Amino acid sequence: MRLSGFFFFSMTMMLLANKALANDFDYHSAFKCNGQEKFTWYCEEEKKKPVKKAPAPKPSPVKTAKKPVEEPTPLTEEQKDLAEFERIKKTLKEKRKIAYVNPTNKNMKDYISYQNFVTKKAAVFTDKWKRVIWQDPTLDYSQKFPVAKIAKTTNLEQRDKAKMAAFQKLKQEGYGIFFFYRSGCEYCKAMASPMQYFQSFSKMDVLPITIDGVKDEELFPGSIVDHGQAHKLHVTQTPSIFLVNPKTRKIVPIAYGWVSVNDLEKRIFVLTNTKPGENY
C-alpha cells in the first residue's frame, strides 16, 4: 500500500514538472506576432480594411400638388375693340408694303380692296360723329366757335365788345403800352399805323421808347429816350411791345417783331382776360 501511494505521488510530481518545464520553454518569441517574425518591439495591429458603407438611399422625390391651370381672363369689349383696331392697321400696312414692293395685279387689287374697306369704316365713323354732336350741344365745338358766316359774324361782334370792355378796364387799372423801337428799323416804322389804330380803339396810352437815342416824332410822337427800361425788360430786338402797369409794376410781354392790330388786340385780351385753353 505504501509503495502504491509513493508511486502515484511520484508520477504526479513528474507530470507537473514536465508541464512546468514545457511552460518555461514553450513561449512566444518577442520577435514573433501570431507566429510571424516581426522586427519590432511590439506587435502591430493589422490595418482594418475600411468598411464600405452602403449608399444612402436616394430621397424619394417630393410630390408637389399640381396647381390648377388658370383659365385666361376673357377680354373686355374695349380690349377686343383695341385688338381689332391694331389688326386692321397692321393688315393695311402689310398689304400696302407688299403691293409697293411687288405691284402685281393681284397684290394691287388686294391692297385697294382692303383700303376701300378701311375708308368705308372711316366714313361710318365720321357720319356717326356728326349724328352724336347734333344730338348733344355740349359736344358741339361750333356752338362756341361757329363756322357758318352769319353765326361767325355775330360771334366776332360779341368778342369785339368783350375786348373793348377789357381794354377799358385795363386803362382804369392804370395799364399802358411800352413800344420799343430804333432808328433805321423798317419793321418798327411799319408798326406805326397799327399802334395808332390800337391807341384810338382801346383808349390806352402808348409810350414810344427809342433804344438808340434817335427819336422819330413824325411816326411816333411823344417818344422818349431809353433810360434803362430796355435793359430791365431784356429787350434785344425791335419792335418790342409790353403791357405795363406803373402802379402795380406788373409787366406783360405782348409781342417781339411786327404784328397786325388784330393780333395785338387778341394777344392783350387773351393774356389778361382768359385762362389757358378757354378759347379753344
UniProtKB/TrEMBL annotation:
InterPro entries: Thioredoxin-like_sf, TraF/TrbB. It comes from Hydrogenovibrio marinus. Gene3D superfamilies: Glutaredoxin. It holds the Pfam family TraF. Residues 50-76 are annotated as: Disordered. This is Conjugal transfer protein TraF. Residues 1-22 form the signal peptide. Keywords: Signal. It comes from the Bacteria. SUPFAM superfamilies: Thioredoxin-like.
